[in-house]
Amino acid sequence: DPEVGWRCLTADVVGCDFYDVLIGPQGEVYVVIGDVSGSGPLAALFMAMTSCLMGILVQEGLPPGRMLELANKILHPHLSRRRMLITAQIARYHSASNTLALASAGHMWPYIMKKSGPVEVPLTGLPLGSMPTLDYPEIHTRVAPGQRLLLYTDGLVECSEPGGEMFGFERFTAALAEASLASAADLVESLLARFH
């Protein structure tokens, strides 16, 4: 069985980052992550709508790219009217074949954590709400034993230290290089330890 670790830290204002781990009809494991532009009640409403929509689409057993395509088609009229966007990323893992499918709607590139170090996975795709119809290409890869997939939102690199300095990508990638791969939970904890 795949191992999943996650952490969501509270923000000072109503946050609009979201994630979910869902099981498809054939036992596939889907991980959905995203970020609604802006903050406050309206953005939080779109966050809840998107999260529910993804849960519905997962039950159809759709590939990640198709899920994003349909989500964009449904959400675009509502987002464009309010000049809002949503970045999102979906990973689908088949444990029987150890294969991973990834698609992104303008979200931050994920990393595959290997024993040799972190490898960024470049994904293309515009945020949900950018245009009425969009295609979302997928990347497919086989997962080797001990490898981890890391999905995250910009809150991780944009958080500030007590002195007010932003953590930034340089320190983030350095933290990744030193992160523990013992388990998914250990990876999360070793990254967050760098923020204290």
Write out key terms for the chains shown.
196 residues, alpha+beta, 3-stranded antiparallel β-sheet, 5 helices, 8 strands
List the helices and strands and how they pair.
Layout: E1 17-23, E2 29-36, H1 41-58, H2 64-81, E3 86-94, E4 99-105, E5 111-114, E6 117-120, E7 138-142, E8 148-150, H3 155-158, H4 168-178, H5 184-192
Antiparallel strand pairs: 1-2, 2-3, 3-4, 4-7, 5-6, 5-8
Helix pairs in contact: 1-2
Written description of the protein model:
- This protein has 196 residues and is an alpha+beta fold.
- The protein is 31% helix and 24% strand.
- The protein has a 5-stranded antiparallel beta sheet with strand order 1-2-3-4-7, with helices on one face.
- It is globular, with a radius of gyration of 17 Å.
- The mean pLDDT is 86.
Describe this structure in a few short sentences.
Helix content is 31%, strand content 24%.
Low-confidence stretches: none
Task: Report helical residue fraction.
Answer: 25-40%
Average pLDDT reading: 86
Instruction: Summarize the biggest pleated sheet.
Output: 5 strands, antiparallel
Got a strand count?
A: 8
Classify the secondary structure makeup into a structural class: alpha+beta
Number of helix segments? Answer: 5
Distance between the first and last residues' Cα: 32 Å
Query: How much of the sequence is in beta strands?
Result: 15-25%
Taken from the alpha-carbon principal axes, the silhouette is globular
Radius of gyration: 17 Å
Question: What is the N-to-C order of secondary-structure elements (H for helix, E for strand)?
Answer: EEHHEEEEEEHHH
Widest beta sheet: strand line-up: 1-2-3-4-7
